[in-house]
Amino acid sequence: MERKISILGSTGSIGQQTLNVAKNLGEKVKVYGLAAKSNVDLIELQAIETGAEIVCLFDEKAAKELKKRHPMWNVVTGMSGLCEVASYHAVDTVIAATVGSLAILPVMEAIKAKKMIGLANKEILVAAGHFITKLAKEMNVTLFPIDSEHSAIFQCLLGEDKESVSKVVLTASGGPFLHFSEEQLKHVTAKDSANHPTWSMGSKVSIDCSTLMNKGFEVIEAKWLFDLPLEKIDVVIHPQSLVHSFIEFIDGSMKAQINVPNMELPIQYALTYPKREKRGTLPFDFYKNNKFEFFTPDRKKFRCLDLAYESLRVGGSLPCVLNAGNEVLVERFCRGEVSWMGIAEKLEILLGRHNALYDLSVDTLLEVDREARLEAKRL
Fold this sequence. Notes:
There is one protein chain. This protein is α/β, with parallel strands linked by helices and about 375 residues long. The chain folds into two domains: about 5-145, NAD(P)-binding Rossmann-like Domain (Rossmann fold); about 150-260 and about 285-315, no CATH class. About 45% of the residues lie in helices and about 15% in strands. It contains 16 helices and eleven strands. The strands form two sheets. It has a seven-stranded parallel β-sheet with strand order 4-3-2-1-5-6-7, with helices on both faces. A four-stranded mixed β-sheet has the order 9-8-10-11, with helices on one face. The longest helix has 18 residues, at about 120-140. The protein is globular, with a radius of gyration of 20 Å. It starts with a strand and ends with a helix.
């Protein structure tokens, strides 16, 4: 069976790896739609190579430049353009690989059009998990996790009764500052944060990994993806990033999913499920990869993890505020306006000022997102 896909965020790290997987799978995957923010040159090359039928550049100026180069192409722009790519008639699967909450509306449009969703974007479920999962259930649409941790949980749950699950444990590498003192953390930069020990990722995700906010987002995502109560979701530090997550059952037994760090594996599994296709990789070498360490996260140094737990515990609009505020504060950190430790400090203030709303519509949630961003810029 051929998988027909659109990729939201095709010029980013996950988007490019998805295209590589699609190329390796040959006739099993056909790319129909591509969407990115403003990288004209790269998306042009991608469109030429894949023969994509619709291309979106969110930035209007960039879209005009691409249309100028290729007048006959179907080039769209803005939020309406993202929604067109996400709901394109020829597509059966949408890979959501953008960074941030920008793809909430496009993903909802894709679900309404009954496309399977491959989720590589945590922020969509962090900010709007209730709406996304409710709509997916109503439309009988599968939300397939592409994050290595959530793909691992998905695989470990196959064939199991969810009632027999005692705990789901998400593993975290600990990031580049795992062994830093609080004094050292006062002076780290955005460049330091990008030096992830095991994964190669974009700037935003790398910084979130360094603060453990990324893991906090994954806790929230796991709650929505697998319909789990908060008390059944735990986090451990596993520096080797070989065990991608594991499940403990009520009888005391455990299941884990293990492979060397490589995002193409969960991407491929999402594109070929329920089948597995051969990949050109060497067998796992237990003699070489013979170190499996696990530590408790230092929640004092990495305060963002607890902020994510607390926002989920309170619920309502608070996770949306957490996501929006974090996006803005990470941008400010990159510009040198906020310290690394200041991200968590200012987020705590932002969350403390917000009175959580529970009677929410999508429009209300988007307004909460907008206001949280403005407030985070002022802090």
